[in-house]
Amino acid sequence: MYQQFKRIIKTIIPQKILFEQEENLRRVLLPFYKGNDHTCVICETNLSIFAEAEYGTLLCPICGSLPRTRRLWKLLSEEFLKNGISVLDFSPSRSIYRKLKKVENIHYFSSDFENEFLADYRFDITKIEKTDNTFDLIICYHILEHIVDDVSAISELYRVLKPGGHILVQTPFREGNIYEDSSIVTEIDREKFFGQNDHVRIYSANGLQERLENSGFITQIRTLKKDRYLGLVENERVIVCTK
Hints:
The protein is α/β, with parallel strands linked by helices. It is about 35% helix and about 25% strand.
């Protein structure tokens, strides 16, 4: 049902209007999913089931959050969001963007360089137009695998982070070593070798950790547990970086 609803809405409503009215449109689905077997930590809706998106991913039908998005919000709300902090968020999911925009007593800077996400700024992650030591917290979720010069990007993240500040980093991970090849440039080949046509590498968690530490970060790889009630997956990995 969810996929049918999505296809119909996308064919009749322009994307700009769809993004603006998404919350109202999704509320139409509430009677079909309301229950007490699950809850979404972002929109705080009690659900009978999560909707099933591509590849069996459990999606909240009311706010559109994915498991990694709900995990991110859980980490933010329980540990990293503090009064008065400045937060930089690269290409945020719409559910996280809307949630953080409503949080009082933080300074929220959302950025999307390609203008494909809801965001208020357009920072180039390899050359961030902010002074040194600006942000207390940076969210860099599923960004670095798109960046050709990831070393420069990581260096910039270190530069604009305040001493004692944190960065939450996640990408798709593989076992073993980082796989990258600068000769792979076409969309067809990138999808074949990297899993998506706009990816330029596949990181291993340890390989990315090493690159982050080479720029000066203190890092911790967190491997997180499944939570059926919250729709969170087993063995999800997030790298927490501290300056």
